[in-house]
User: What shape does this take?
Amino acid sequence: MKRFLLLFAILPILLAGCRAQAAESQATPTPYPTPVREMFTVKRGDINVETKLHGRVGPLALHSAYFQMVGKVSEVYANVNDLVKKDQLLGELVEAKDLRAKAEETQRTIRRAQIALEIAQLTLEEYNSQSRSAQEIKIQELQVELAQMQLDETLESLGIDPNSSVVDELEAQVAQARVFAPADGTIIAAVQPGQNVTKDTPAFVLGDPNQLEVVADLNSGNNDQEVKQMFEGMQVTISVDSKPDLKLKGKIRQLPSPYGTGPSDKNVVHIVLDTPPSAQTYQIGDNVTVMVPLANKQRVLWLPPDAIRSVGGRTFVIVDSDTGPKRVDVEIGLQTRDMLEIVSGLQEGQVVVGP
Assistant: This one.
């Protein structure tokens, strides 16, 4: 009986100890950190929108020579860096051979009609010298007139003006498939045999090696909207890739058609520099980077792109208000990688909450 009472007295103490031990063994929960959202302040500053072109320094392009017809290049008689003289033959199309053959056949056809006219005229002269009868002379006069009509009709059917030089006309037809130097100069660009050309393709470009310019490519990264904002005479900044700290000024001399006066099939920009070439500035063959300013706004409100949200066609930011977070629609203007112009919706100094 005493053992039972002792056990009954000890049992509550043992149970309490077990509960304390279980409580101690239970892990203390790790509190979750409260997420901290980035805050952005509406600031005022200048936004410059630029596009980058890559180019190379070469001789200033002064003249371009074109074929006068569509065709395929057969022969090239002058290559890049060759010095050429005005009116020098530079190249021919495959079609030139057919045109020459056609010209020779045309000359034979015309010559037959000319011979018939000459025979009729000589015969008339002979009749007059022999005092032939008036009827015979009249008949021969009609033969001369008929031969002249046949010659004129032959020329017209061949597309040759009866009042012009036949030889000149035929040479002009063959010349459509040949290209000649428009002036003295150095070849700085040339077509290759087998290349297809049109009347708008610069077959040969002549330049002056003593005058240099930058020829920069318009690549896929330069969209039409950017090119539309460029114009001939536009000021640009040029840096030589081997001298990145050197900044030079220049202007766009020529843009491709329809944006400027250059050929439409050459997707390049010609730029002249204000500084003359030298060992300290730039020389022929240097690779350069051209920065073209497309837009500039001063003292405008702006935010970084991370502060702006777009959902369902709606552009907005989140601001804190007395009633909690609030959406505010904003209108965006100029945009760069780091800055977005705030046209409306916010004021300078206002704080917005990041996503």
Summary: The longest strand covers residues 43-66. Residues 95-129 form the longest helix (35 residues). The mean pLDDT is 85.
